[in-house]
């Protein structure tokens, strides 16, 4: 996709070059980090109805500084090699930023999922998986796909089954793909992971008083207004979690069919249900329909969350953006040229390769779960619960106080799998943001959080290469 004179891939490379100038890394090492190591372009036939269709697909492994490589598979009619290369590059930097031990990868199948039945999509998915298996582009220690735009747990289950049929008896076979259904070696909390990570990241960004003061905002998430573009998995969970746990007021939503606005706020959970029933967000009670589907991007708000596709904010509309904070829930929603305009306007951009890293973080937890062959919390939950219960009872006996069974159960409970997943994700997002912000504050020549995030990622990837003796 091109917006103005720059493509998504060119935008990623331009941001890389900008950050590289703020490091002391050798030029040759930077070049190795920058390029994609392996690009697999494929065409394969699938029988659809009474005819055969040739499907175009890709898998790109950007960096092998750590194995396995990791990245989602997207189904979209707009998929092309350059886009997949850009997304794979971002995955490398994303994994490094949140200290997840993977190299970056990405996959893409050039189809519109809406035009195929479930059975037809299964045929395409299994054939794509078979192609990856034949070329050794998938495996627990090689390359681990996950869901992305247009795919979900269903497709990951098909990939797992296909992989196991080719690798019968492989003890760690379940770790060949993440984002699987919970009852098929998945992990609780994976579906909400990216949206929850966006919430944790934005909350951390809003917790720094000095940064908020520059924007004319109060500290914390409570009471802030938000506009969301894209009501898919990421946008829906971002909206509901920000409302339920952050007390944020969502005043605008944009989707494929159009955009809506309500000064009083839009209930995202209700809107998601309404769209499933009607097929559209338009006409949701209490909202006003805006001129077109991009109009919501230009609403005056505290936080704008683009959670759709890349290059949604470009040189053609950047000057019209009125948000004070932009949280990139999607990959590459702002072009490099557009970001320069936004920064001149004093907007804080929380970059994608940090903010939407919740998905790969929880995918990492799922991968670990598959390797240890045991759900998190199984060994310690009851022990911890009994220990907490004994402590509470001891305090009550010593003080002569009483506590209701419901309150006691709330205090003296052991952590279940989803509690541990959310806790690990929260810790990851907080720590990563603080590392990025520390670079941003320490290096006076760095003027934006994206460049600081890139510098953080480049230094970590470079350290891996150097520690392996590839670059002295």
Describe this structure in words.
The chain is of the alpha/beta class and 472 residues long. Among the domains are: 39-184, Rossmann fold; 193-355, Rossmann fold (3-Layer(aba) Sandwich). The chain contains 16 helices and 14 strands. It has helices spanning 8-20, 27-34, 81-97, 118-134, 153-166, 193-205, 209-215, 233-246, 268-278, 336-344, 352-355, 358-372, 381-399, 405-411, 417-442, 449-467, and strands at 2-3, 6-7, 38-48, 51-61, 69-75, 103-109, 143-147, 225-229, 249-255, 258-261, 288-289, 303-306, 325-327, 348-350. Strands 11-10-9-8-12-13-14 form a seven-stranded mixed sheet, sandwiched between helices. A five-stranded mixed sheet has the order 3-4-6-5-7. It has a two-stranded antiparallel sheet with strand order 1-2. A hairpin with a 2-residue loop joins strand 3 and strand 4 (51-61).
Brief synopsis:
The protein is built from 16 helices and 14 strands. It is α/β, with parallel strands linked by helices and 472 residues long.
Question: What distance separates the N and C termini?
Answer: 38 Å
Helix-strand pattern: EEHHEEEHEHEHHHEHEEHEEEHEHHHHHH
| Oligomeric state of shown chains | single chain
Q: How much of the polypeptide forms β-strand, as a percent range? A: 15-25%
Major beta sheet summary: 7 strands, mixed
The CATH superfamily name of the domain at 193-355 is NAD(P)-binding Rossmann-like Domain
Helicity level: 40-55%
Number of helices: 16
Task: Briefly note the CATH topology name of the domain at 193-355.
Answer: Rossmann fold
Structural class: alpha/beta
Unreliable stretches (pLDDT < 50, length at least 5) are none
- Would you report the number of β strands? 14
Report the average pLDDT across residues.
Answer: 92
Q: What gross morphology would you assign?
A: globular
Radius of gyration, CA atoms, in whole angstroms:
23 Å
Indicate the CATH architecture of the domain at 193-355.
3-Layer(aba) Sandwich
CATH class of the domain at 193-355: Alpha Beta
Strand order of the largest sheet: 11-10-9-8-12-13-14
């Amino acid at each position: 996709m091109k917006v103005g004179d720059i493509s998504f891939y060119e935008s990623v490379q331009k941001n890389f070059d900008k950050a590289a100038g703020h490091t002391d890394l050798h030029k040759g090492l930077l070049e190795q980090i920058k390029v994609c190591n392996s690009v697999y372009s494929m065409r394969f036939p699938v029988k659809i109805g009474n005819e055969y269709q040739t499907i175009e697909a890709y898998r790109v492994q950007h960096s092998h500084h750590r194995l396995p490589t990791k990245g989602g598979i997207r189904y979209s009619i707009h998929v092309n090699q350059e886009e997949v290369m850009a997304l794979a590059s971002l995955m490398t930097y994303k994994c490094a930023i949140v200290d997840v031990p993977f190299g970056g990868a990405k996959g893409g199948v050039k189809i519109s999922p809406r035009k195929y039945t479930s059975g037809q999509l299964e045929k395409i998915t299994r054939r794509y998986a078979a192609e990856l298996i034949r070329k050794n582009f998938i495996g627990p220690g090689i390359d681990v796909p996950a869901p992305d735009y247009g795919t979900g747990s269903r497709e990951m289950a098909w990939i797992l089954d296909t992989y196991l049929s080719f690798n019968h008896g492989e003890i760690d076979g379940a770790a060949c793909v993440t984002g699987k259904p919970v009852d098929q070696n998945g992990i609780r909390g994976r579906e909400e992971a990216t949206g929850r990570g966006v919430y944790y990241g934005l909350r951390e960004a809003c917790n720094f008083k000095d940064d908020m003061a520059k924007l004319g905002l109060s500290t914390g998430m409570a009471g802030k207004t938000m506009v969301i573009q894209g009501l898919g998995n990421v946008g829906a969970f971002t909206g509901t979690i920000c409302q339920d746990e952050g007390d944020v007021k969502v005043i605008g939503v944009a989707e494929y069919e159009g955009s809506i606005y309500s000064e009083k706020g839009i209930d995202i959970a209700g809107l998601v249900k309404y769209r499933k029933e009607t097929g559209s967000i338009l006409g949701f009670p209490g909202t006003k329909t805006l001129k077109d589907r991009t109009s919501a991007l230009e609403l005056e708000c505290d936080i704008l969350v683009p959670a759709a596709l890349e290059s949604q904010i470009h040189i053609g509309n950047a000057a019209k953006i009125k948000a004070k904070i932009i949280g990139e829930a999607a990959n590459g929603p702002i072009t490099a040229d557009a970001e320069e305009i936004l920064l001149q306007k004093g907007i804080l951009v929380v970059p994608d390769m940090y903010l939407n890293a919740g998905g790969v973080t929880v995918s990492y937890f799922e991968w670990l779960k598959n390797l240890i062959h045991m759900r998190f919390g199984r060994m310690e939950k009851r022990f911890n619960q009994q220990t907490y219960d004994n402590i509470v009872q001891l305090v009550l006996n010593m003080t002569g106080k009483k506590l209701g069974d419901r309150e006691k159960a709330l205090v003296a409970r052991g952590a279940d799998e989803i509690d541990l997943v959310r806790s690990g994700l929260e810790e990851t997002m907080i720590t990563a943001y603080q590392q990025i912000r520390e670079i941003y504050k320490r290096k006076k020549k760095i003027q934006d959080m994206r460049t600081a995030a890139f510098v953080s990622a480049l230094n970590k990837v470079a350290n891996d290469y150097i520690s392996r003796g590839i670059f002295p």
